[in-house]
Every structure is written in C-alpha cells, then in structure tokens.
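Dear colleagues,

As part of the handover before I leave the project, I'm documenting each prediction I ran so the next person doesn't have to rerun anything. This entry is a single chain, and its sequence is reproduced below.
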Amino acid sequence: MPGPRRDRPAVLLLLGALLAADLYFHLWPRARRELAAGAPGCPCRRRPAPAVPPPRARAASALRRLFAHPLYRAAAPRGPAEPLLGAREALRYYRRKAARWNRRHKLYREELNLTSPAALLPLRPEASWLQFHLGISRDGLYPRSSPAVSRLLRDMQDFTTISADYSQDEKALLGACDCSQIVKPSGVHLKLVLRFQDFGKAMFKPMRQKRDEETPEDFFYFVDFQRHNAEIAAFHLDRILDFRRVPPTVGRLINVTKEILEVTKNEILQSVFFISPASNVCFFAKCPYMCKTEYAVCGNPHLLEGSLSAFLPSLNLAPRLSIPNPWIRSYSFDGKEEWEVNPLYCNTVREIYPYSNGNRLLNIVDMAIFDFLIGNMDRHHYEMFTKFGDDGFLLHLDNARGFGRHSHDETSILAPLSQCCIIKRTTLLRLQLLAEPEYRLSDVMRESLLQDLLAPVLTEPHLLALDRRLQLILKAVRKCIDTYGEVKVVANDTMQPEAPASDKVKLTT
C-alpha cells in the first residue's frame, strides 16, 4: 500500500493562499461597497445629486423682470408702427441681388477653371436677416422681444461664411491715402464684410485690444483702438435702455483662413495675409490709416475673436442721411469747437432747424447719454432713415471706441444734456429704474452679456462704471430741474403706462 504523497499539503496551502488573496483583494472590497451603498445611515449615496441650474439660468431673473416692467411694455402713442420697407418690394430687390451674386460667382469659378458645380445661393423669405429688415419701423430697428433678432444673433454665430470683402468706405480709400501723413494708425478701417449661407451680411471687426487693457490716458480719442467687445456691449446696453437704435451685434470666433482668406475674391485682401513669426495667420488693411504689418491682427493660429454687426437694408431700398453732430469734437491736437468754450451754445443750436422743434434735439440728448455710458467720444456724425423724416430716430452706429477707460468719466460727452437741459420723460424714467437696486444697470448688463458666445464681454470695472456714470446723468438732470423746473426740462414724449404702485418710478428731484 503506497504511503501518503508529501506534496499534497503544499498544494493545499497554495490553494488556500490564492483563495485568501482573492477574498481580501477582490470579493471583500466589492462586498464593502455594496453594503455601504445600502446602509440605512447614508441614504445620500443612493440619491442623485440635485440638478444645479447653469449660471445663465440662475441669473436670468433680473433681465426678465426689467423687460416685464410696464415701462418696457408700453405701446407707442401713434398706434401701429410705420414699417421702413414694403415686404413685396424688398423681396423683389433682394431676389435680383441674389441672382446677380450667383451669376458673378459662376463666372468667377469659370475663370479659375473650377469644374465642380457651384451651389446656387438661395433667398428664403423666412431668413432671419430679411425678417430683421422687414421689422424695422418708426419706433426702432426692431420691436421688443423680437424673435427675428434672437434668430439673427444665433445665425450670425453659427452660419458658414461664403464670401469676404472690404467695406465700401475702405474700398473708396484704397490707394488714396498717404500713410506717412496719417496720424491715427488705430485700425479704424480694419473691418470686413462677411456674407453667410443665407445671403445675409454682417460687418466683422476683429479683436484689437484685450479686455483688461485700458486706453492710455495720454491717447487722443481719435487715435484710440477700436474694440470688438465694445460693439457687442453697445448693442446690449442700447436694448436695455430700450432705444433699439444699434443693429444686432454678436461675438464670434472666426477662422481667418477658412472663413476669410479661402472665400474672398478680392485679390487685395488676399495679398495682405501673412504668417507671423509665431506661426499665426495674420492680415492687415491696405493703406487706409495703416500700411504696415505692425498693425495687423492675427489668429491663434487661425481663430480670431471679433464682432459681427448685422447689415441694415440697402441704401437703394432705405436711403439714409449722414448728418454732422452739432456737438462734434475737434479732430486736431489743440483745437476746440464752440460748444467746448461757450456754455450757451445750445441757444444757437435751438435756432437752427430741425433742432428748433420736434424730437431731433431730444434724440441728440438720448445719443449723448448713451455715449457717456459707454465712454464714446467719437460721435462726429449720426445717421437717419430719410423715410421717417426729421422726427425719425437716430442710428447709433460705430460704437467700437467705447468702453476704453473704466477709471475715467468724460463728462463733456453730456454737453447736450447739461447745456440744453432737456430730456425725454421715458428716457428719464428708465434711467431712474436702472438705478434701483432691483434693476441695477450693471447687473442686467452682466446678465445680458452672458448670452454672448465671447462672454465675459466686459470686465467687472467697466460694468461698475456704468452704475457710476448713471448716477452722474441723474445728477445732471436734477441740477437742470432745480434751475429751470421739471416742466421745462422733462419733455412728455409719450403717454405714461399704468404700473402697479410698487413698480412705479417717480421723478425724483
């Protein structure tokens, strides 16, 4: 009878060790996790975390409350708003333009011997830019709570660009300037017209200055940079003030290679692109106010921030007048205009038509208040649609020189208000409302700007400067009322809406 095998204890010991290791390192940790998850003392492990609303949703209340206020829901006393364009005429005109563009694009491709068929550019009546044009009326560039403007802002952010070109004013200057004699190499004409897949157009202004940079105090206003974020912020502020005189503007990251260089047919524009030593794609304007690559803007390496402002209707459809601002500044290093040295200058302005009656002078004061809030000293002209006559609203265009210095309040911008001592009642009521803690201007601006793709659009010091400047405006109005009385200072421009007692804003003197 054979004896017991001596290796069996060793095998059993080995198997036992493997089983113990498996229990300790695998089965026991899993059992602990299961027991911990089901323990009655910690029900939070089985409960899903509460959904936290995104910052934009949490902060949406102030802006909604503002736009729900009776001051922002009052109907114009004139009844239905008079439209700028006739829908049928506008559609016929833009269909002709689309057909012309398609023909030229086909010829351009044939010149380049491109054999692939080119897709025709359609004109759809429901396009957001066209609905924006048809929504312009005597009351403003767009109605309150306009769905067309909301769609237009999204489309300008998302749609593919199909062409890029210089603006008409830049084309007029090409080759017609002597750069050695120009004193403002600021990028004033570094802007492009981009066309999108829906045939809409927008003015593109690239980033020239970082958000946290202030304009040096030694800079003259006419050599200041043009800031893309100022264009964006100006649109939001204009809407909050309920002026609705700034075209819809949105921020976007543009691929300068794919969305400008590769789609432009302009050979001059193609020639100003280059690769920087840092391997970034850059471009600059050809001669107007800057002839050198030092004034170029560059992608990173291709993407570049910029603002896109929707085009207004063609001048052939809706002619506009460009009128010198009576409070224009001297564009020289040492000169001064009459209003800067004569405190009674407004008496002279009041004797000149159309400032002698109607709303023109009141609209000039509105524009001065808007410019003071953004710090824009460069309002040398203003534009109006000729169809609406002398009492039509003023367009607040070209706001890129705003928001340059948050630490300085240029009170001379308020000269139309302080010298003429007149203001619309509706404007004053909204300013007073925005000075209330519940509707504080900086808060609603901060929230409104969060809707933009390039948020944060303004730094916190610029937002707080709005509150400070608003108080200065109200102080100037109180001084006028103390001097001349409320009846002479506050113009009753419209019927006042009925509001709940808690929402009514009083004319405080």
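The radius of gyration is 31 Å. The first strand starts at residue 161 and ends at 166.

All the best with the project,
I.
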